[in-house]
Amino acid sequence: MDNTQLLTEVKQLIGKAETGKALEKLIAFLESAPRFQYLYQEALQAQALFKKAERDESFGLVSAEQSKLSYSRTTQQLLQLVGRLERNELGPFESSPAAKKRRYAYWAIGALLLALAAFGGWWLLKPDSSQGENLLAEAENCPAYPADDAFNILLFPFQDLEGQATKPHIAINSSLSQFKEQFDINCEIGFYKADENDPNSFPTSYDDAGRKASSCHAKLVIWGTSGKSGTGGTTIQMFYKFLDENGKLPLSKLGLTEEATQVVTVPTISSIVTEGNLTQSLEENIKLLFGLIAHESGDKNTAIEMLESFEANDSSTTLVKGMVLADNYWATNQEDKALASYDTVLATHPNYFLARNNRGILLYKNEKYVEAAEDLSVALEKDTTDPQLLELRSDAYIKTEQLDKAKADLSRLQRLPPEERHIDVDKKLNEVNKKIEEQRQIKAEAESSLRHNPANTSALLLKAESSHKLGEYAQAIQAAETMLRNDPRNLRAFAQLIIAYRSQGDREKTAEAIRRADAAGVSRAELSRLVPFDLNEIAPIRTIIDRPVLRRQ
């Protein structure tokens, strides 16, 4: 197979997003001749990274956005290798191990030349101005933005992998321009003057795209490729990168005032990267990007309008959409919608710290203490010594009478420096310890009564309640089950069973206990009055549909 045929097939596979197959085909070809040794080694490295990304994703070791970013970078490496093979550039790439060895040799020679310069051989050394010349050349390819204070967007012509003469960048520019005029956003869009015959004038990586955009004073750069899909249509891979200082999306972290009466916001840097690969339709991609542009520009209402109309089709864009929407909902006093957005994010990213923190704060403010404590527990996994989260969770535990858990949080707070606390921890801890002693006494008296009469319903109820408050969930469950054996429709026994399973963290058994109560004919409305959380969120009520009975003729 000659180079041209191989490159055509590899490009087709890339266009179909079949990166693994494209790598296998390229590696098999490069292995065939010694002159491809450098490209072959780099292709093997790219394949290893691709397989690692697949493995990490399958075992759930990385988040969806991290996985998507790894695949995008592998695709960029592959495109870079294809471009070098097309140009017959068979030497080591500047960032490859072989190139690094070559640079080490150059550095050694450079050290020798410096030594010679010290003895009068300075004329042997000449300054290398190529980097400055490259930056100057790139700057000359930049569009002339009319205003430096606008949100400048740099758009590259998309690289056509199939020779189809498709120009997605024209449609992108048109859509962005329409949205700009429609919503009166202070942004400017310009094309980079890329040379179609020089692949190096196109971005070869996210870092390279960022460098080119920086030289043009742009705040967002968009580039990509187009090719044939498996069904004969066109597949577009669209890459983007927002230029900021840290490469992460700025969002708000919610907190409460010291009196826990008002929610306050603190600007924070989320773990969401501001670069990536969009594979949806151009229309959907533009909605997401323009929503992010509006968010970064401070136009909350436009960000909401654009993102509400964007249909996320993967976990990565669900995370971005949900978190940015929630941020803008909160900023525009739409608390219920912010909560719903956090719900959507956590349905696909259940351990995402910032969403758990923010939803936990809002739930606490709305007096949903059981749910708030669960969210704050996940948030505390990232920072186990966050004083405000510990204070709020300990108070949520006190309000739901989970005394052992409240004591554990207050004990942790007690070990923190006094200046970091906002409450009188010693006073709170003394109050909780007193309540714990009272519950131990109540439990001991109940157990004494049960030794004389194991079927004593009042004593069983007291034991179930006190055991739950002391964190002895197995005993609480056992006492509740004994009550139910004696009285299968006992309302309070079901309530204690459900509460104990929820406090134990077993949502499956919590739902099962709710369904058992339903089956026993216990009123869901009456049960809800005894349980400090929404039963329908755990086990929705099922509607029974009567089916006609088929009779033999």
Structure class: alpha/beta
For the record, the CATH architecture of the domain at 141-242 stands as: 3-Layer(aba) Sandwich
> What fraction, in percent, of the residue positions are helical?
55-70%
Rg from alpha-carbon coordinates: 31 Å
Number of distinct beta strands: 8
Distance from N terminus to C terminus (CA atoms, Å) equals: 71 Å
Beta-strand content bin: 5-15%
Based on CA inertia axes, which overall geometry fits? elongated
Supply the CATH superfamily name of the domain at 141-242. TolB, N-terminal domain
Look at the structure and give the mean pLDDT: 83
The CATH topology of the domain at 141-242 is: Rossmann fold
Q: What's the level 1 CATH class of the domain at 141-242?
A: Alpha Beta
Question: Count of DSSP helices?
Answer: 23
Question: TL;DR?
Answer:
60% of the residues lie in helices and 10% in strands. With 553 residues, the protein is α/β, with parallel strands linked by helices.
What features would you describe in this structure?
The protein has helices spanning 3-15, 19-30, 37-58, 64-86, 97-121, 130-140, 168-183, 206-215, 282-297, 300-309, 315-331, 335-348, 353-365, 369-380, 387-399, 403-414, 425-452, 457-469, 473-486, 491-504, 507-519, 524-528, 535-538, and strands spanning 151-155, 159-160, 187-191, 220-228, 234-242, 248-256, 263-273, 275-278. With 553 residues, it is of the alpha/beta class. Among the domains are: 3-97, no CATH class; 141-242, Rossmann fold, CATH 3.40.50; 450-538, Tetratricopeptide repeat domain (Serine Threonine Protein Phosphatase 5, Tetratricopeptide repeat), CATH 1.25.40. Strands 1, 2, 3, 4, 5 and 8 form a six-stranded mixed sheet that branches. Strand 6 (248-256) and strand 7 (263-273) form a beta hairpin. The model is unreliable at 94-137 and 543-553 (pLDDT under 50).
